[in-house]
Amino acid sequence: MTRDYKSTVFLPRTDFPMRAGLPAKEPELLRRWAEQGLHDKLRDLSAGREKFILHDGPPYANGNIHVGHAVNKILKDVVSRSQQMLGKDSVYVPGWDCHGLPIEWKIEEKYRAAGQDKDEVPILQFRAECRQFAQEWVDIQAEEFQRLGVMGDWSHPYMTMTFPAEATIVREIHKFLMNGGLYKGAKPVMWSVVEKTALAEAEVEYHDHTSTTVWVRFPVSAPATPELDDASVVIWTTTPWTLPGNRAIGYGPDMEYGVFKVAAVAEGSGARVGERLVVATALAGDLAKTAGITEWRQLYTLPGARLADTRCAHPLHGQGYDFPVPLLPGDFVTADAGTGFVHIAPGHGEDDFNLGRRHGIQVPQTVDDDGSYYPHVPLFAGKRVYTPAGKPGDANGAVISAIAHAGGLLAKGKLVHSYPHSWRSKAPLIFRTTPQWFISMETNELRQVALKAIDDTRWVPPQGRNRIASMIENRPDWCISRQRAWGVPIALFIDRKTGEPLKDQAVLDRIADTFQTEGSDAWFARDPQFFLGDAYAAADYDQVFDIVDVWFESGSTHSFVLEARPDLQWPASLYLEGSDQHRGWFHSSLLESCGTRGRAPYDAVLTHGFVLDEQGRKMSKSLKNVTAPQEVVDKYGADILRLWVVGSDYSEDLRIGPEILKSQADLYRRLRNTLRYLLGALADFSEEERINVSEMPELERWVLHRLTELDGTVRQGIHDYDFHSLFTALHNFCAVDLSAFYFDVRKDSLYCDRPDSVRRRSVRTVLDQLFSCLTAWLAPVLCFTTEEAWLSRHGGDGPLPSVHLRTFVDIPPEWSSPELAEKWETVRDVRRVVTGALELERANKRIGSSLQSAPVVTVTPELHAALEGIDLAEVAITSAIRVVDGPVPDGAFTLEDVPGVGVVPEPADGDKCERCWKVLPEVGTDAAHPSLCHRCADAVEHMPEAAE
Fold first, then answer.
1. For the chain: N or C, fewer Cβ within 10 A?
2. Gyration radius of the chain over CA positions
3. Which tens digits make up the pLDDT trace of 711-723?
C-alpha cells in the first residue's frame, strides 16, 4: 500500500491571518495599549537613558484633522518611536494651539447668524465660549491622532489656554519688556478690515487680485529747477484709495527723468495737448501708450538728483488737501513699472512710512479699523475700502471720480497681481499704520543672535537653513499685538503722563502669578488696582488689552513645556513641521527663544512637504479630490496611511489618492506575508534548536551579513531622518532577498529536512533572527501589524508584552562578512541565468516545475571557482545541476548582464519523490519507503511523535 506522507512535511503553521482586517484589529490593539499603560511602562523602562525630545508643534484646535495633520503626526511618531527603539528615552508630549482668530471667528459667526453684534457680548462670556469650543476640538483631535497609532502622553498634553501656559506666556512678554526688546510704535502692518486686526505674515496667503490702477498728475507748485515750471509729476498706483493719505512723492535719485510736452492725443485720452508731464525716460513710451498720447516732445532730461526740494500740489488741492507734497529720494523706486514716481502714503506702506519718517512727515490717520475713512477725511468720510464681508467698497470709485473731476486723472486701467489676503476670511488686506506692540530685531542684537542660532542648528533638508536665514535677515520688527478678544493679553500698564510702560517686576510678577491660578481672564475680571498694588494708583495708568499674536504664544511653548516638565529637556532634540513653518513656528520659536535665552529652542529642525492629489493638484472640496485620513483608516487601516507617509519622499510634496492607496495596500500585503511566513516557519521553535553561526551553511551566514548591512542602513536612516530610504531598503530586503530568494531556496529544507539536521536548525535560527530584527525595524512604521505579529508569536504575558517595549537588536560584529556577500552576489547572478532558462521552458510547457529539470550550466573557470562548495541545484531549486567550464555553447540561454554563463535545460533523471517532489535516480531504492528519496526516507524514520 502507498503511504500518504503529507503529514510528515513540516508545513508552516500560524494563526497570524493573511487578511489583515486592520480597521477592526487596530482599535483592539489601542485598547490593549491603554489597558496595559504602555506609555508609562516605556517611561519606567527608559529611566536614566539619554533623552530624545521631539517637541510637538501645536496644531490648531478648530476642526477635524486632515491628511496634512496625518502626515505630520505620523512622521513625528515614526521619529519618536525609532529613537525609543535606538535605546533612548523618547518622550512625546502632544500639544494644541487654542487661542486666536480662527476660534474667535467661529464664535463670532454664531452671533452674526443670530443677528447679534459680538462686541456687545460680555468679554468673559465670549472668551468662555471660545475656551469651550477649543476644548471640544482638542478632545476630538486627540482621539483622531491616537487612532493613527501616535503614541504620546495623551493623558497630559499641553494647551496654550491652560492657566500655567497663559502665565508663562505673559512672563515671556514681560521678559522682552524688561530687556528693552518690547516697545509700542506706529508702523504699517497688514490689516484685515473683516477681522479688524493686524495679521502676521504667517497668517497671510497670497492670491491673484484685480486692482484698479490710476495714473495721476501732481502739479509742480515749487520747482527746484526751472525745467519743472508748469509741469505735472505723474504717479502710478494700484491702490487709488490711498491717495487721500498721500503726503509725498518718491523718486529714484539715480534714475533719469524727462519733461515731455504733449503734442497730440487719441480720442478719449485723459491727456491734454500742450501740458507738460514729468516721467522716467525708461517708462515714457509705456505711459504715452497707456494715456493715449500719440505725439509728444521731450523738452528736458533731468537726473533724479535734480528733483530734490521740489514740491507739488495734491491733485485735490483746494478741497481739503491743501498741503505741499514734497519729492523725496527713495532707493526703493525702480523703473520696472509705472512712471518712475511712487506716491507716498505714510499710513499705508512700509517704504512710505520709513521714507516719511526720515523726512519728518507726519502720518495721517485716514482709514479706521473697519476699512472706512475717518469722519475727518475730506470728501470721503465713511467711504469703505472693503466692506465688512471683504468685498470692494466704494472708496476707490469715489477717489478716482473726485480726482478725475479735479482734472488730475491721466489714465486708469486694471491689473491682476498677487496680493495679500487673510488666510481665515480670504478677504484682501490693506496696509495700515496703527499703534502696535513690537519686538525689536535690533535691540539686544536679536537679528544677529537669531542668525547665529540658525547656523548652530541642524536643518533637514539643509536648504531650510538658507530659507529661514533670508527671512530673518530681511524681516522688520515683530508686531506681536492683535486687536482681538480670545487669547493672552499683553498684560502691561502704560503711564498716562509719560506714555511709557510700567517696568516694575513686582507688578509683573503679580500679574503672572494671578494668571497661574486664575488664567488670563483675570486681566478682564479683576480691578486693575489689584495688579498695581499699593505702589501705584490705577487712575494714573492705562491697562493694555491688546491680545498677543498667537505665533508668540506657540513660539513660547518651549518655555512652558520643555522647561516646565521634568520628563522633558530644553532645548528640544528636534522640531518637525511642514516647510511653511520656516515663516511660522520655527521662526517665532527662534525669535522668542533667542530674545530671552540667546539661542534656538531646538538642536535640529526637520521639514516635510504638503499633500497633493494624485495629479499634483492642491486638495479642495470643489475639485472633490480631498482624501480624509478618517476614511482611509476606516477602509484600509492606519498602518496603510503610515506606510504611505514613509513610502513617500516627504522632503518634497506628497501625493495621495485611490490608486496610490491601492498600491500601498499591495506593498503592505507583501510585508505582512513576510511576517506571516516567518511566524509559520518558526512554529514550535525552541532554544535547544538554535545553532551557532560557525556551524551554519554559507547561505545562512550570508543572510546574517545582510542583517548587519541593514542594521547600519536603519540606524543611519534614523540619524538622517531619511525614513523613505530606510523603508525602501527594508521593503526590498523582504521582497527580493527574502521572499524571492532565501525563503524560496530554503522552503525545501524547512519542509522536508529532518528536524535535527544542521541545515534545518540553521534556517530556523536565522528565521528567528529575521523575525526579531524585522519586527523591531518595522515597529516604528507598522506599529499595529508588528504588535500583532509579536503577540502572535510571544503572547502578551512575558517580560516584553509589547514589541514597542523592545530596542533594536544589537547585531554581533562577527556576522559581517563582506567577502561572503561578494561571493553570493556572484552565485545569485548565476542563479538568475538558470531561473531565466527554466522560466522559458515553463512558458513553452516543456516543464511544469523547476524540479523536473537538471540543467547544464557552463561557466568560466573564475565563476566555477566562485561556485565552489555551493549546491547550485539547491539554490536554483532544481533536482540536479551539472556545472562545467568552457565557452557558452550555441543555443544556451544567457543574460547580457551576466557574461560567461550559459544554461542548457535538461530533464531530471529518475522518479519523483512523493514527499519533496525532487526527481532523483535514488527514488525507489529504499525498500521501506520506495516512493521517497534517501533524505525523505531518513526524515520520516526520525519524525517527532507529534508530527507522525
1. N
2. 38
3. 999 999 999 999 9
